[in-house]
Amino acid sequence: MSNIPLTREAGRSQGAVLVLGSSLTIMGSVMVAPIIPKLIAEFAASEPRVEVLAPLAITGPALAIAIFAPLAGWLADGFGRKLILIFATLLYALLGAAPALLNDLQSIVIARFLFGISEAMVMTCCTALIADYWQGERRLRYINAQVISIALVGSVFFVIGGALGEQSWRTPFYLYLLPLLLVIPMMKLLWEPVSRSEQGVEPDNKRIDVVALVVGYLLIFGGMVLSFVVPVQTPRLMVQLGIMSSTLIGMATGAGLLASLMGALVWPLIRRTIGIKCTNALLLVFMSSGLMLLINAGSLTGILVAVVIHGLGAGLLVPNAITPVMNALNKRQNGRGMGGFTSCLYLGQFVSPLCVALLISLTGTLTHAIAMLAVIGFGLGAVWLIYALFAKQSGTSPLTTTAHK
Protein backbone atom coordinates (compact mmCIF):
# COMPACT_ATOMS: atom_id res chain seq x y z
CA MET A 1 0.00 0.00 0.00
CA SER A 2 1.76 3.12 -1.21
CA ASN A 3 1.83 6.30 0.79
CA ILE A 4 0.28 9.42 -0.68
CA PRO A 5 1.62 12.81 0.41
CA LEU A 6 -0.19 14.61 3.18
CA THR A 7 -0.54 17.63 0.86
CA ARG A 8 -3.28 15.77 -1.04
CA GLU A 9 -6.53 17.48 -0.11
CA ALA A 10 -9.38 15.42 1.27
CA GLY A 11 -12.85 16.22 0.00
CA ARG A 12 -16.47 15.15 0.27
CA SER A 13 -15.81 11.61 -0.95
CA GLN A 14 -13.36 10.94 1.88
CA GLY A 15 -15.70 12.68 4.31
CA ALA A 16 -18.65 10.55 3.25
CA VAL A 17 -16.71 7.31 3.73
CA LEU A 18 -15.44 8.32 7.17
CA VAL A 19 -18.81 9.63 8.34
CA LEU A 20 -20.59 6.45 7.20
CA GLY A 21 -17.86 4.37 8.83
CA SER A 22 -18.38 6.24 12.09
CA SER A 23 -22.12 5.55 11.96
CA LEU A 24 -21.42 1.81 12.19
CA THR A 25 -20.98 2.17 15.95
CA ILE A 26 -24.64 3.02 16.58
CA MET A 27 -25.70 -0.04 14.56
CA GLY A 28 -23.93 -2.14 17.18
CA SER A 29 -26.72 -1.70 19.70
CA VAL A 30 -29.87 -0.31 18.07
CA MET A 31 -30.48 -3.28 15.77
CA VAL A 32 -30.20 -5.78 18.61
CA ALA A 33 -32.16 -3.97 21.35
CA PRO A 34 -35.64 -4.71 19.91
CA ILE A 35 -35.04 -8.47 19.71
CA ILE A 36 -33.79 -9.02 23.28
CA PRO A 37 -37.22 -10.32 24.48
CA LYS A 38 -37.18 -12.91 21.66
CA LEU A 39 -33.60 -13.83 22.51
CA ILE A 40 -34.64 -14.45 26.12
CA ALA A 41 -37.62 -16.53 25.00
CA GLU A 42 -35.41 -18.59 22.63
CA PHE A 43 -32.86 -19.60 25.26
CA ALA A 44 -34.97 -19.52 28.44
CA ALA A 45 -35.28 -23.31 28.54
CA SER A 46 -31.65 -24.16 27.79
CA GLU A 47 -29.76 -21.37 29.57
CA PRO A 48 -30.48 -20.75 33.29
CA ARG A 49 -28.59 -17.41 33.20
CA VAL A 50 -30.57 -16.08 30.24
CA GLU A 51 -31.78 -12.97 32.11
CA VAL A 52 -28.16 -11.98 32.73
CA LEU A 53 -26.57 -13.07 29.45
CA ALA A 54 -29.19 -11.72 27.02
CA PRO A 55 -28.74 -8.05 28.04
CA LEU A 56 -24.98 -8.54 27.64
CA ALA A 57 -25.66 -8.95 23.93
CA ILE A 58 -26.31 -5.18 24.02
CA THR A 59 -23.92 -3.95 26.73
CA GLY A 60 -21.03 -6.31 25.89
CA PRO A 61 -19.85 -4.37 22.81
CA ALA A 62 -19.85 -1.07 24.75
CA LEU A 63 -17.64 -2.62 27.44
CA ALA A 64 -15.33 -4.06 24.77
CA ILE A 65 -15.01 -0.65 23.11
CA ALA A 66 -14.24 1.03 26.44
CA ILE A 67 -11.50 -1.51 27.19
CA PHE A 68 -10.00 -1.87 23.72
CA ALA A 69 -10.25 1.66 22.24
CA PRO A 70 -6.91 2.90 23.70
CA LEU A 71 -5.13 -0.12 22.20
CA ALA A 72 -6.96 0.52 18.92
CA GLY A 73 -5.53 4.04 18.93
CA TRP A 74 -2.04 2.68 19.53
CA LEU A 75 -2.44 0.23 16.64
CA ALA A 76 -3.69 3.04 14.38
CA ASP A 77 -0.65 5.18 15.21
CA GLY A 78 1.74 2.26 14.84
CA PHE A 79 0.41 0.33 11.84
CA GLY A 80 -1.60 2.93 9.96
CA ARG A 81 -5.17 4.19 10.19
CA LYS A 82 -6.29 2.98 6.75
CA LEU A 83 -4.97 -0.55 7.16
CA ILE A 84 -6.55 -0.99 10.59
CA LEU A 85 -9.83 0.58 9.42
CA ILE A 86 -10.25 -1.81 6.48
CA PHE A 87 -9.33 -4.81 8.62
CA ALA A 88 -11.73 -3.72 11.37
CA THR A 89 -14.60 -3.14 8.92
CA LEU A 90 -14.24 -6.69 7.63
CA LEU A 91 -14.21 -8.02 11.19
CA TYR A 92 -17.21 -5.85 12.04
CA ALA A 93 -19.29 -7.41 9.27
CA LEU A 94 -18.29 -11.02 10.00
CA LEU A 95 -18.54 -10.84 13.78
CA GLY A 96 -21.72 -8.76 13.60
CA ALA A 97 -23.50 -11.38 11.51
CA ALA A 98 -22.07 -14.35 13.45
CA PRO A 99 -24.89 -14.58 16.08
CA ALA A 100 -27.37 -15.39 13.28
CA LEU A 101 -25.54 -18.70 12.85
CA LEU A 102 -24.91 -19.51 16.53
CA ASN A 103 -27.12 -21.72 18.68
CA ASP A 104 -25.61 -21.04 22.09
CA LEU A 105 -26.24 -17.84 24.09
CA GLN A 106 -22.78 -17.82 25.63
CA SER A 107 -21.22 -18.01 22.16
CA ILE A 108 -23.43 -15.14 21.04
CA VAL A 109 -22.27 -12.97 23.95
CA ILE A 110 -18.61 -13.79 23.18
CA ALA A 111 -19.15 -12.94 19.50
CA ARG A 112 -20.74 -9.65 20.50
CA PHE A 113 -17.80 -8.79 22.76
CA LEU A 114 -15.34 -9.47 19.91
CA PHE A 115 -17.63 -7.44 17.68
CA GLY A 116 -17.19 -4.53 20.11
CA ILE A 117 -13.42 -4.71 19.61
CA SER A 118 -13.90 -4.22 15.87
CA GLU A 119 -16.24 -1.30 16.62
CA ALA A 120 -13.52 0.32 18.72
CA MET A 121 -11.05 0.12 15.85
CA VAL A 122 -13.53 1.49 13.30
CA MET A 123 -14.58 4.48 15.41
CA THR A 124 -11.04 5.33 16.50
CA CYS A 125 -9.58 5.16 12.98
CA CYS A 126 -12.42 7.12 11.37
CA THR A 127 -12.14 9.91 13.94
CA ALA A 128 -8.33 9.96 13.75
CA LEU A 129 -8.45 10.24 9.95
CA ILE A 130 -10.88 13.16 10.20
CA ALA A 131 -8.37 14.85 12.52
CA ASP A 132 -5.56 14.06 10.04
CA TYR A 133 -7.31 15.17 6.85
CA TRP A 134 -8.93 18.46 7.92
CA GLN A 135 -8.26 21.47 10.13
CA GLY A 136 -10.31 24.35 11.52
CA GLU A 137 -13.92 24.80 10.48
CA ARG A 138 -13.80 22.01 7.89
CA ARG A 139 -12.78 19.57 10.59
CA LEU A 140 -15.62 20.78 12.81
CA ARG A 141 -18.12 20.25 9.98
CA TYR A 142 -17.09 16.62 9.60
CA ILE A 143 -17.11 16.06 13.36
CA ASN A 144 -20.67 17.34 13.43
CA ALA A 145 -21.55 15.23 10.39
CA GLN A 146 -20.44 12.18 12.41
CA VAL A 147 -22.96 12.95 15.13
CA ILE A 148 -25.76 13.67 12.64
CA SER A 149 -25.04 10.47 10.74
CA ILE A 150 -25.03 8.40 13.93
CA ALA A 151 -28.41 9.85 14.97
CA LEU A 152 -29.95 9.26 11.52
CA VAL A 153 -28.60 5.74 11.16
CA GLY A 154 -29.64 4.94 14.72
CA SER A 155 -33.22 6.09 14.08
CA VAL A 156 -33.50 4.17 10.80
CA PHE A 157 -31.96 0.92 11.96
CA PHE A 158 -33.83 0.91 15.26
CA VAL A 159 -37.02 0.66 13.19
CA ILE A 160 -35.54 -1.78 10.64
CA GLY A 161 -34.10 -4.03 13.35
CA GLY A 162 -37.44 -4.14 15.15
CA ALA A 163 -39.36 -4.89 11.96
CA LEU A 164 -37.02 -7.69 10.88
CA GLY A 165 -37.04 -9.09 14.40
CA GLU A 166 -40.77 -9.70 14.17
CA GLN A 167 -40.05 -12.73 11.94
CA SER A 168 -36.97 -14.08 13.73
CA TRP A 169 -34.43 -12.83 16.25
CA ARG A 170 -31.67 -13.99 13.88
CA THR A 171 -32.65 -11.85 10.88
CA PRO A 172 -31.46 -8.42 12.10
CA PHE A 173 -27.91 -9.73 12.56
CA TYR A 174 -27.54 -10.22 8.80
CA LEU A 175 -27.75 -6.43 8.39
CA TYR A 176 -24.24 -6.24 9.84
CA LEU A 177 -22.96 -7.50 6.49
CA LEU A 178 -23.91 -4.16 4.89
CA PRO A 179 -20.63 -2.43 5.90
CA LEU A 180 -18.82 -4.74 3.46
CA LEU A 181 -20.03 -2.25 0.85
CA LEU A 182 -17.72 0.34 2.43
CA VAL A 183 -14.53 -1.71 2.10
CA ILE A 184 -13.81 -0.94 -1.57
CA PRO A 185 -14.49 2.82 -1.17
CA MET A 186 -12.17 2.81 1.85
CA MET A 187 -9.44 1.15 -0.21
CA LYS A 188 -9.86 3.50 -3.19
CA LEU A 189 -10.63 6.87 -1.56
CA LEU A 190 -8.67 6.92 1.69
CA TRP A 191 -4.92 7.18 2.12
CA GLU A 192 -2.47 6.85 4.96
CA PRO A 193 -1.29 10.28 6.10
CA VAL A 194 2.46 10.67 5.68
CA SER A 195 4.29 12.25 8.58
CA ARG A 196 5.90 15.61 7.97
CA SER A 197 9.34 14.13 8.64
CA GLU A 198 8.83 11.66 5.78
CA GLN A 199 8.22 14.62 3.49
CA GLY A 200 11.48 16.24 4.51
CA VAL A 201 9.63 18.77 6.66
CA GLU A 202 10.14 19.37 10.35
CA PRO A 203 7.96 16.86 12.23
CA ASP A 204 4.88 17.91 14.14
CA ASN A 205 6.28 18.62 17.61
CA LYS A 206 3.24 20.50 18.85
CA ARG A 207 2.98 20.02 22.58
CA ILE A 208 -0.08 18.06 23.66
CA ASP A 209 -2.44 20.08 25.84
CA VAL A 210 -2.86 17.55 28.65
CA VAL A 211 -5.34 19.68 30.61
CA ALA A 212 -7.68 20.06 27.62
CA LEU A 213 -7.32 16.34 26.90
CA VAL A 214 -8.26 15.26 30.43
CA VAL A 215 -11.14 17.75 30.64
CA GLY A 216 -12.51 16.49 27.30
CA TYR A 217 -12.26 12.88 28.46
CA LEU A 218 -14.06 13.64 31.74
CA LEU A 219 -16.74 15.64 29.96
CA ILE A 220 -17.62 12.91 27.48
CA PHE A 221 -17.57 10.26 30.23
CA GLY A 222 -19.87 12.21 32.56
CA GLY A 223 -22.04 13.39 29.68
CA MET A 224 -22.62 9.85 28.46
CA VAL A 225 -23.59 8.74 31.98
CA LEU A 226 -26.33 11.40 31.89
CA SER A 227 -27.17 10.74 28.24
CA PHE A 228 -27.79 7.00 28.61
CA VAL A 229 -30.20 7.39 31.52
CA VAL A 230 -33.02 8.17 29.07
CA PRO A 231 -32.83 5.19 26.66
CA VAL A 232 -32.17 2.72 29.49
CA GLN A 233 -34.51 4.00 32.22
CA THR A 234 -37.41 5.62 30.31
CA PRO A 235 -39.15 2.26 29.59
CA ARG A 236 -39.19 1.50 33.33
CA LEU A 237 -40.65 4.91 34.13
CA MET A 238 -43.28 4.54 31.41
CA VAL A 239 -44.34 1.15 32.77
CA GLN A 240 -44.70 2.74 36.22
CA LEU A 241 -47.15 5.20 34.60
CA GLY A 242 -49.09 2.29 33.13
CA ILE A 243 -47.81 2.79 29.58
CA MET A 244 -47.13 -0.79 28.45
CA SER A 245 -47.22 -0.40 24.66
CA SER A 246 -43.89 -1.26 23.02
CA THR A 247 -44.85 1.06 20.16
CA LEU A 248 -45.24 4.05 22.51
CA ILE A 249 -42.02 3.16 24.32
CA GLY A 250 -40.26 2.98 20.96
CA MET A 251 -41.77 6.34 20.00
CA ALA A 252 -40.26 7.92 23.09
CA THR A 253 -36.85 6.46 22.22
CA GLY A 254 -37.18 7.70 18.66
CA ALA A 255 -38.10 11.20 19.86
CA GLY A 256 -34.92 11.32 21.89
CA LEU A 257 -32.82 10.27 18.89
CA LEU A 258 -34.45 12.87 16.64
CA ALA A 259 -33.89 15.55 19.27
CA SER A 260 -30.21 14.63 19.47
CA LEU A 261 -30.09 15.04 15.69
CA MET A 262 -31.54 18.54 16.07
CA GLY A 263 -28.96 19.33 18.74
CA ALA A 264 -26.16 18.28 16.43
CA LEU A 265 -27.61 20.36 13.58
CA VAL A 266 -27.75 23.56 15.65
CA TRP A 267 -24.41 22.95 17.39
CA PRO A 268 -22.29 24.96 14.90
CA LEU A 269 -24.50 28.05 15.38
CA ILE A 270 -24.55 27.70 19.17
CA ARG A 271 -20.77 27.16 19.34
CA ARG A 272 -20.06 30.22 17.21
CA THR A 273 -22.52 32.32 19.23
CA ILE A 274 -21.65 31.48 22.82
CA GLY A 275 -18.41 29.47 22.57
CA ILE A 276 -17.32 25.97 23.60
CA LYS A 277 -17.37 26.56 27.36
CA CYS A 278 -20.84 28.11 27.53
CA THR A 279 -22.12 25.36 25.22
CA ASN A 280 -20.84 22.81 27.75
CA ALA A 281 -22.89 24.58 30.43
CA LEU A 282 -25.94 24.68 28.14
CA LEU A 283 -25.84 20.99 27.17
CA LEU A 284 -25.50 19.90 30.79
CA VAL A 285 -28.48 22.07 31.75
CA PHE A 286 -30.53 20.62 28.87
CA MET A 287 -29.77 17.02 29.85
CA SER A 288 -30.33 17.64 33.56
CA SER A 289 -33.59 19.52 32.92
CA GLY A 290 -34.76 16.66 30.73
CA LEU A 291 -34.06 14.18 33.53
CA MET A 292 -35.95 16.29 36.06
CA LEU A 293 -38.93 16.62 33.72
CA LEU A 294 -38.81 12.89 33.01
CA ILE A 295 -39.17 11.81 36.63
CA ASN A 296 -41.97 14.34 37.17
CA ALA A 297 -43.87 13.51 33.98
CA GLY A 298 -47.38 12.25 34.58
CA SER A 299 -48.30 11.45 31.00
CA LEU A 300 -46.92 10.39 27.64
CA THR A 301 -46.83 14.02 26.52
CA GLY A 302 -44.73 14.96 29.53
CA ILE A 303 -42.32 12.12 28.80
CA LEU A 304 -41.95 13.17 25.16
CA VAL A 305 -41.20 16.77 26.18
CA ALA A 306 -38.60 15.52 28.67
CA VAL A 307 -36.77 13.23 26.23
CA VAL A 308 -36.73 15.95 23.55
CA ILE A 309 -35.13 18.51 25.89
CA HIS A 310 -32.68 15.88 27.11
CA GLY A 311 -31.93 14.83 23.51
CA LEU A 312 -31.05 18.38 22.48
CA GLY A 313 -28.34 18.42 25.11
CA ALA A 314 -27.13 14.95 24.14
CA GLY A 315 -26.83 16.07 20.52
CA LEU A 316 -24.54 18.94 21.54
CA LEU A 317 -22.35 16.73 23.71
CA VAL A 318 -20.12 14.74 21.36
CA PRO A 319 -19.08 17.48 18.91
CA ASN A 320 -18.53 19.96 21.73
CA ALA A 321 -16.43 17.52 23.76
CA ILE A 322 -14.36 16.12 20.89
CA THR A 323 -13.37 19.47 19.35
CA PRO A 324 -11.03 20.56 22.19
CA VAL A 325 -9.60 17.02 22.36
CA MET A 326 -8.69 17.08 18.66
CA ASN A 327 -7.17 20.54 19.02
CA ALA A 328 -5.13 19.37 22.01
CA LEU A 329 -3.37 16.60 20.03
CA ASN A 330 -0.63 16.56 17.43
CA LYS A 331 -0.72 14.37 14.32
CA ARG A 332 1.58 11.71 15.76
CA GLN A 333 -0.78 11.17 18.72
CA ASN A 334 -4.17 11.49 16.98
CA GLY A 335 -4.85 7.74 17.02
CA ARG A 336 -4.08 7.24 20.70
CA GLY A 337 -5.85 10.46 21.65
CA MET A 338 -9.02 9.48 19.79
CA GLY A 339 -8.78 5.97 21.23
CA GLY A 340 -8.86 7.46 24.72
CA PHE A 341 -11.85 9.62 23.82
CA THR A 342 -13.75 6.66 22.36
CA SER A 343 -12.95 4.61 25.46
CA CYS A 344 -14.34 7.28 27.80
CA LEU A 345 -17.45 7.68 25.64
CA TYR A 346 -18.38 4.01 25.77
CA LEU A 347 -17.26 3.57 29.36
CA GLY A 348 -19.77 6.29 30.28
CA GLN A 349 -22.49 4.38 28.41
CA PHE A 350 -21.61 1.13 30.13
CA VAL A 351 -21.50 2.49 33.69
CA SER A 352 -24.62 4.67 33.36
CA PRO A 353 -27.05 1.92 34.46
CA LEU A 354 -24.55 0.86 37.14
CA CYS A 355 -24.50 4.43 38.50
CA VAL A 356 -28.30 4.46 38.56
CA ALA A 357 -28.34 1.10 40.37
CA LEU A 358 -25.85 2.40 42.96
CA LEU A 359 -27.87 5.56 43.54
CA ILE A 360 -31.06 3.50 43.89
CA SER A 361 -29.38 1.56 46.70
CA LEU A 362 -28.54 4.88 48.37
CA THR A 363 -31.77 6.79 47.75
CA GLY A 364 -34.32 3.96 47.64
CA THR A 365 -36.12 4.71 44.35
CA LEU A 366 -35.38 5.10 40.64
CA THR A 367 -36.80 8.62 40.52
CA HIS A 368 -34.63 9.78 43.42
CA ALA A 369 -31.56 8.25 41.78
CA ILE A 370 -32.23 10.07 38.50
CA ALA A 371 -32.90 13.29 40.41
CA MET A 372 -29.49 13.02 42.07
CA LEU A 373 -27.79 12.60 38.68
CA ALA A 374 -29.70 15.65 37.43
CA VAL A 375 -28.52 17.73 40.39
CA ILE A 376 -24.93 16.69 39.67
CA GLY A 377 -25.44 17.71 36.04
CA PHE A 378 -26.77 21.13 37.05
CA GLY A 379 -23.76 21.59 39.34
CA LEU A 380 -21.31 20.76 36.57
CA GLY A 381 -23.14 23.10 34.23
CA ALA A 382 -22.77 25.91 36.77
CA VAL A 383 -19.03 25.20 37.03
CA TRP A 384 -18.64 25.48 33.25
CA LEU A 385 -20.61 28.74 33.18
CA ILE A 386 -18.50 30.28 35.95
CA TYR A 387 -15.32 29.13 34.20
CA ALA A 388 -16.50 30.60 30.89
CA LEU A 389 -17.25 33.97 32.50
CA PHE A 390 -13.93 33.96 34.33
CA ALA A 391 -11.99 33.12 31.16
CA LYS A 392 -13.82 35.87 29.26
CA GLN A 393 -13.02 38.47 31.91
CA SER A 394 -9.37 37.47 32.21
CA GLY A 395 -8.94 37.13 28.45
CA THR A 396 -6.89 33.96 28.91
CA SER A 397 -7.60 30.28 29.29
CA PRO A 398 -5.46 27.28 30.21
CA LEU A 399 -7.35 25.38 27.52
CA THR A 400 -5.53 27.10 24.71
CA THR A 401 -7.10 26.95 21.27
CA THR A 402 -9.51 29.24 19.55
CA ALA A 403 -12.14 26.53 19.54
CA HIS A 404 -12.40 26.77 23.32
CA LYS A 405 -13.51 30.36 23.40
What would you say this structure looks like, in words?
- 77% of the residues lie in helices and 0% in strands.
- It is an all-alpha fold and 405 residues long.
- It is globular, with a radius of gyration of 21 Å.
List descriptors:
405 residues, mainly alpha, Growth Hormone, Chain: A, disordered N terminus, disordered C terminus, MFS_Efflux_Transporters
**Tally of individual domains:** 2
Described by strand count, sense and barrel closure, the largest sheet is: none
SS class: mainly alpha
- Overall average pLDDT: 84
Straight-line distance between termini: 41 Å
Provide the CATH top-level class of the largest domain.
Answer: Mainly Alpha
CATH topology-level name of the largest domain? Growth Hormone, Chain: A
CATH architecture of the largest domain: Up-down Bundle
Q: What is the approximate shape?
A: globular
Order of helices and strands: HHHHHHHHHHHHHH
Number of helices: 14
Low-confidence region ranges: 1-6, 196-203, 400-405
Number of strands: 0
Strand content: under 5%
Domain Major facilitator superfamily (MFS) profile: 14-394
InterPro entries: MFS, MFS_dom, MFS_Efflux_Transporters, MFS_trans_sf, Sugar_transporter_CS
Pfam family, one: MFS_1
Main location: membrane
